[in-house]
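Researcher: Structure for this, please.
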Amino acid sequence: RFRGTTGGTDIAAKILSRFTTLTAGQALLVLDGLVIALAGLVFNSVELMLYALISVVVSGKTIDVVVEGFNYAKAALIISSRSEKIAARILAELGRGVTGLAGRGLYSGEAREVLLCIIGRMEETRLKQLVKEEDPHAFLIISDVHEVLGEGFKEIKEDGKSR
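Model: Predicted structure, C-alpha cell format:
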C-alpha cells in the first residue's frame, strides 16, 4: 500500500505491474508461478508444485486485498432504450440513486440516455436481473470502484478525507 517491497520476487512483480495492466498481486502470481513451475520440473514433483501454486494464488489475492482494500463497490453503466423504466426500478427496488447521462451511438446516430449507478458488491446480481427483465437487449458495463464517497457510501469529511 505504501510502495514498499520485501526484497524478493515482489520487486520484479512491482516493476512488471508498473509496465503492464497487471495488479501487484497478479504480477507476483505470474512470476512466482513461473518459478514454481520451473522448480516442479527440476525436482520432478507435481504434488509439491500444486501445493506451492495454491499458496501463491492465495498470497496474490491477499496482496490485492491489502493494497486495494475491502471497501469497494461496483459502477454500472446501462445503455438502453428503456432507461426510464430501468432507472425507476433501480430507485424503487435497490434503493440506489441513478444518474442519467446524455449519450449518442456513433454507429447508429441514435440519442440514448446512459444510466450511471453505483451499487454494493452484493447488489450486482440483482441489478443484472432487473436490467434483463426490463430490456434483454440493454448494454451493461459493470466495473469495480475502489472508493465511493457520498450519500449511501463513505462520508466526505471537511478536511477532504473519507471516513
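Researcher: Any notable elements?
Model: Helices lie at 9-19, 24-43, 46-68, 83-94, 124-134. The chain has a mean pLDDT of 83.
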